[in-house]
Model the fold of this input.
Amino acid sequence: MKTAISPTRAENFPEWYQQVVAEADLAVNSPVRGCMIIRPNGYGIWERIQKLLNDRIMETGHENLYFPLFIPLSFFSKEAEHVEGFAKEMAVVTHHRLKMIDGELKPDPDAKLAEPLVVRPTSETIIGHHFRESVKSWRDLPLLWNQWANVVRWEMRTRLFLRTAEFLWQEGHTAHATAEEARAETMKMLGVYVDLCDNVLAMPTISGEKPAHERFPGAESTFSFEAMMQDGKALQAGTAHYLGTHFSKAQDIKYQNKEGGLDYCHTTSWGVTTRLIGGMIMTHGDDDGMRIPPRVAPRHVVILPIQRGAPEDEAVLAYCESLAAELRGQAYAGEPVRVFVDRKDERAVDKRWAWIKKGAPIICEIGGRDVASGNISFYRRDKLREGEKLAMNSLPCAQFIAGMSGLLAEVQAQLFADAKKRLDANIVKDVDSFDALKAYFAGKAGENEDSFRGWLLVPWKRPEGEAGETLLETLKQLKLTTRNVPFGQEGKPGKPCIFTGEPADEMVLIARSY
RNA sequence: CGGAGUGUAGCUCAGACUGGUAGAGCACUGCUUUCGGGAGGCAGGGGUCGUGGGUUCAAAUCCCGCCACUCCGACCA
Done:
């Protein structure tokens, strides 16, 4: 069968991913190593995520504000774990002027900054600085802040959307009087994210707490939600951290309590990034390209006029425009239906495949015959093929328009259902020995590393000290990672830890990961 | 930062061993035939062959230096 993307997912998943990003016109590599140019089709998705997530962040009582891109180097030296976590990947600004030296533009040696500035890899330190300035009394708390920004982490190896040197995100930072309140905030925002993933991105996740060695540098506890990609690997879709008083002690963020004494604030931070787009590609994409869930699709319906260089073309175009206008009068998920009439001077069939690859949920093709019959011919991107052929649907115009809201909801639900089914079906819970774990990931006869492997949920005893190091090394050699300890576990498993044989504390998710 | 590889048209690459007028496919432009299912023909535009030096009558090709990128590792949202 001829597919729009080559290789297919089964043939070579990583290469398939790169091809989809290119063919769906989502992003390209930039002249700057590791940074991406996000093309309109990709940025349009990000704008949808921004809007719908921002609404939810506002609904939960937060305020948006903005901090500088540059952070004084000295700010990082205050929290030891934090600086250790990020030191290896920070971009540093050292000069403020260029000068022509021997015919070449170079940083002017006479224009060296007294203190180097770090391009933010995350903003805990500079926001903490302003927390300190903003908090005097218990009456000032809580502070519930969020900013939309870009950050830079100088990664060695990058992949479009999944790991880039610069990426876009939202970072929430809050300060509270008590640990209970800060912990509740962390969980609340994790819930917001999970809701976004389920109901907007149609990307189901497993949320839980990260083991100690996977915590955010400087966090007391880190929570993640993990999505399963179509090759079985886990993708950390986002995180929320309870930072305890680590940062407030390092940065002296204190408030006067009701009794008149001074207490340290408890802080949190939480974020999701443009990586979500990469997650959606690997969750919903098929061998014909991207499939965008309607909630985040820049265009719900794309209308392709079939032009024949004949007098009837005008009537076809007019018909398309009036159909578009009527569709725009319809609402889906509380917003007008987003319609685009693609009038580009190309054959309809070529444009059709372009939009299939871009992932538009509904693609209509309108020719003279449709104008005459009053029927609309369209493809659903979630159910594109019937066997090898494309599945063309047909509905009377009025019915098509009136049913659009329901149709989009159906597409959205279908994408989620498919992803949820895959996630639920591929978490293996009955592996109870280390040998069985190795056998599961090793595969059958050969070394087929790219074949699908799901996740294991296994009993373990939380490793401490040297035992932890050993376990990590063991997993690393198998190219495995601990993802998180899923929520909702009641009591201890009542089974032995598969690594040590001692009584297990809890069940932990183990998977290959991005 | 280790290991490997590659730099020639927008993209994928051939040409290099054996020095002698810069090539193909796709994409792009124009014309044309097709026209409801990823079309075909004709004609075009486009490259200081990564960069600096050397050898030579002559260098994409041989020699030396440098730079960049990609892939595989370690690190990570």
Q: What stands out?
A: The longest helix of chain A spans residues 404-425.
